[in-house]
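Researcher: I'm preparing a figure for a lab meeting and need a structural model of a single chain. I don't have an experimental structure, so a prediction will have to do for now. The sequence is pasted below. Please return the structure as C-alpha cells so I can convert it later.
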Amino acid sequence: MKKPCKRCLLSDMGGQVYEERIERLLVLMDKEIKAEEALYEERLSICRGCEKLSGEDATSGTCLACGCYVELRAAVKKNRCPYRFW
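Model: Understood. Here is the structure written out cell by cell.
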C-alpha cells in the first residue's frame, strides 16, 4: 500500500486505500443525512488547507482536533468542523 502523504485526504491518494476505507461508507450513507455534493466539496477544500489535517500513517485524512476521517465528517450535513471553519 502507498504510504499516505502527510497533508492529503484519502480521496487525494486515490486507488485502493480510498475505495476500501471511505468510498464504501459514503455510498452506503443514508441520503437523508448526507450533505449535498457542493457542500461536501466546499468542506473538503477547507480541510485540505487546515493545519489539523493529518496523514502520517494509515489513518491518513484524519483531523487532529477530533480524530475523525474528515471525508466522513464532511459528508454528513448536520456535522460541523470542531474549529467551526465550516
